[in-house]
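hey m, so remember when u said the tokens were messed up on ur end? i reran from scratch. heres the input so u can diff it against urs
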Amino acid sequence: MEYENNIREGRFLSRPNRFLAEVELPEGAETVHVKNTGRCRELLVPGARVFLEESGNPGRKTRYSLVAVYKGEMLVNMDSQAPNTVAAEALAEGRLQELGSVALVRREKKFGGSRFDIYYEKECGQKGFLEVKGVTLEEDGIAMFPDAPTERGAKHLLELAEAAKEGYEAAVLFLIQMKGPKVFRPHTERDPAFAAALRQAAAAGVRVLAYDCRVWEKGFLLDAPVKVEL
């Protein structure tokens, strides 16, 4: 996935709320939209190099959206709207090796009380659901999710377990929006309910997948599997 609009580099200054950030550009400080409502405290630190996508909409209140940031030498995409697109592309191209080749990919399909990110069908007629979680939290080479409690996320996992019981293929993909982590784990300390739901879903037949990404200033794509430790 590549951003179609112009990308600019700046320096992060502050984050007055979860939707906005102050960024230093050559022409001065600019208020920008943050395309990730998570905490991201380990990423958005004063002085960090950030990348901004120009909106192209003259009527928008903020001209730019913050989409990526350097954490040391590691570039992290933090656009929470992009992982579904990246995952759908990878699934359609057969690059999610655990799920194999598919004949149909659709976004946003309802099942029970949830709307899953991706629905797919295989040539043999097998149907499946894939839920996608973008991961931006990394500590000591370990990627973790979530960075804040998410009741909705736990609910989706339990709904996936129900889908598996009804004969659907069911999987959750933790898309690590960076290159570097060697292991993925649920963040039990931050959200024990989500971690418990993930283990319950796995026991019910839901595949738990983690992949890292190749990230560059104008986009990112799914790259290689990462070890999952539940």
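this time it looks ok to me. The first strand starts at residue 7 and ends at 17. if urs says something different then somethings off w ur setup not the seq
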